[in-house]
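TA notes, week 10

Several of you asked for a full example with nothing omitted. So below is the full record: structure tokens for the whole chain, then the designed sequence directly under it. When grading your own attempts, check the secondary structure regions first.
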């Protein structure tokens, strides 16, 4: 017989999506490791209890910088191994795209490890570039400038070059190049120039349309040749050091990666044969994360490993260069998702269960009820394993009859309530018998979802996991404790926003997408914590301020020896004052308007001066309050 812990690991798929970072200990708590195979680990339930004891309010984001560093090392090791296997002469020079997660603490954690491998940064806007220029990078690392550029963007890139950064200005549109040439001639400053090539090849998955012939980025073949001519006429062809392409984010199929790299390598080779010493090939981002652990080409998965990704990139470039007899370029990658996704989790608590109906214990039959209610009660009382299917179908008919009679005015509100409760109790019994007799049918699959609990969770889908709401992205969700107990219930998760879309009703499953999550029953006096995993990429920067729920509290945790850990940093989330100011309700404006209301009430004699002073203090005190529910971790 399998232990409850083994069953929990399989139920929630930890071994499939956890990449060696997560496991369950003998106490039934989720644990985290700083690297795959590392004997060090920390108990996440202990960390949460510690943070709650320090009065850090839920929900909060927990970062593990060591996991981020481990993913950077894994990237470096994968490309070094591939280059060694195929005797590749160029170097691997990765850059992290700030758009994936611009938070300063995240970028600092990345650069601490990245500097050891000469890895740099990528900026796609003026604010990102402004921030990146000031960050301390390894001297030989790159600062790649992508995105459409105006004069200010280009001027800022020249500033970066003058302070010692290895800036690459990637030309996205042909009209950007004359501006660069003009500034080179005017200033004598010589940044590296890159050309983004619009390939025929497209990626796969949700972002497939971001590549290919219809991509909004990149130069056509004609424009590429024209750009080279412009540089040649200006005597600046030596600035052209980088060819760039990007076929999409979260590429699910490795064959698309190989096709794109092969096409780009061919373009590189042809340009080298034109006598232009391009020495870098930027293969863009796209290395995906296996969110559901299925290792397939499903949109929330990938059918390759990071090592396979590196092997295929290096092999394809090497093969084309050998065929064309040109030097092998340095390889730039911009894969940010795979580096940062694993390092962050959101921990939230269950506030309460949203009841569909009350239980049968509240039903008291008088004998005077309408016939349809008596028949529902009879179905409930006499259902067995032999007749449950027939009785369930009968109950569906009675439910329609119940509401028809109510609409016609023949049934009281009290009888309608009894009928509703009886109907759901019949459904619950039928579902139980279906499980016992192992009936497999679509109607009972739908019924199980209807009967599942709705857990009210202290978070905002739109703030913390916006991709689940926007594009049905799957994220692993798991209780952080009680994993040595068999879950007895299933549930969907409702957030605290006043929006019907604020739900999580799609969950990771190895062979399919589950519509409910296995959960434990709620003990009235004990908190129940869930963790939303692998949310380090894009979720923070894409999250919006629906209902003015702001950023969550945040903790950085370092994992030590012997099960110990160190909370190195706690960063407060948004408070009420900050979020109202974000919506342009400045503190002074609100306080002045509030005082006007008080004076009006005082003039009417409805408030004394003492009461007005008390209300002013009470109103102002809420400015510093956390925007989420203050439950102290308890249900």
């Amino acid at each position: 017989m399998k232990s409850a812990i083994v069953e929990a690991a399989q139920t929630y798929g930890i071994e499939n999506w956890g990449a060696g970072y997560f496991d369950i200990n003998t106490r039934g708590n989720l644990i985290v490791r700083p690297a795959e195979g590392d004997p060090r680990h920390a108990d996440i339930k202990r960390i949460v209890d510690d943070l709650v004891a320090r009065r850090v309010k839920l929900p909060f984001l927990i970062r593990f910088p060591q996991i981020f560093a481990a993913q950077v090392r894994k990237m470096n090791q994968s490309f070094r191994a591939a280059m060694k296997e195929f005797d590749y002469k160029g170097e691997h020079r990765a850059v992290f795209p700030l758009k994936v997660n611009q938070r300063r603490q995240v970028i600092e954690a990345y650069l601490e490890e990245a500097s050891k491998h000469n890895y740099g940064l990528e900026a796609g806007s003026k604010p990102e570039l402004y921030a990146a220029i000031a960050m301390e990078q390894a001297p030989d690392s790159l600062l790649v400038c992508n995105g459409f550029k105006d004069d200010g963007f280009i001027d800022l890139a020249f500033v970066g070059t003058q302070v010692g950064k290895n800036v690459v200005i990637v030309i996205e549109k042909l009209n950007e190049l004359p501006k660069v040439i003009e500034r080179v001639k005017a200033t004598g400053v010589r940044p590296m120039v890159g050309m983004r090539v619009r390939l025929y090849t497209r990626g796969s998955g949700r972002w497939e349309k971001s590549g290919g012939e219809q991509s909004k980025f990149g130069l056509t073949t004609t424009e590429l040749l024209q750009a080279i001519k412009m540089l040649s006429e200006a005597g600046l062809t030596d600035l052209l050091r980088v060819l760039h392409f990007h076929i999409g984010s979260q590429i699910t199929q490795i064959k698309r990666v190989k096709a794109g790299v092969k096409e780009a390598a061919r373009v590189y080779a042809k340009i080298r044969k034109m006598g232009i010493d391009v020495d870098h090939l930027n293969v863009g981002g796209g290395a995906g994360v296996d969110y559901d652990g299925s290792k397939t080409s499903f949109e929330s998965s990938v059918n390759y490993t990071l090592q396979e990704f590196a092997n295929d990139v290096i092999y394809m470039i090497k093969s084309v260069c050998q065929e064309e007899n040109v030097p092998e370029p340095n390889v730039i990658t911009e894969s940010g998702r795979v580096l940062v996704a694993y390092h962050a989790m959101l921990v939230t608590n269950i506030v309460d269960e949203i009841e569909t109906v009350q239980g049968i214990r509240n039903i008291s039959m008088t004998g005077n009820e309408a016939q349809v209610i008596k028949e529902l009660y009879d179905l409930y009382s006499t259902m067995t394993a032999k007749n449950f299917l027939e009785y369930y179908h009968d109950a569906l008919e009675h439910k329609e009859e119940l509401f028809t009679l109510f609409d016609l005015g023949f049934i009281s509100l009290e009888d309608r309530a009894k009928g509703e409760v009886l109907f759901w109790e019949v459904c619950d019994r039928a579902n139980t018998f279906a499980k016992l007799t192992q009936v497999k049918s679509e109607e009972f699959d739908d019924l199980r979802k209807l009967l599942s609990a709705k857990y009210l969770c202290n978070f905002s889908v739109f703030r913390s996991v916006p991709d689940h709401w926007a594009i049905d992205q799957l994220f692993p969700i798991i209780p952080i404790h009680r994993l040595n107990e068999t879950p007895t219930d299933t549930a969907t998760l409702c957030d605290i926003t006043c929006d019907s879309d604020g739900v999580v009703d799609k969950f990771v499953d190895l062979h399919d997408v589950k519509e409910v999550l296995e959960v434990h029953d709620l003990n009235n006096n004990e908190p129940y914590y869930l963790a939303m995993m692998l949310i380090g990429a894009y979720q923070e920067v894409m999250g919006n301020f629906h209902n003015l729920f702001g950023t969550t509290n945040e903790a950085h945790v370092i994992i030590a020896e012997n099960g110990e850990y160190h909370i190195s940093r706690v960063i407060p989330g948004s408070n009420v004052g900050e979020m109202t100011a974000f919506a342009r309700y400045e503190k002074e404006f609100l306080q002045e308007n509030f005082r006007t209301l008080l004076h009006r009430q005082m003039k009417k004699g409805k408030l004394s001066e003492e009461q007005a002073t008390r209300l002013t203090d009470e109103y102002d005190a809420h400015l510093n309050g956390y925007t989420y529910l203050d439950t102290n971790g308890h249900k």
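Residues 577-624 form one domain. Use that as a sanity check on your answer.
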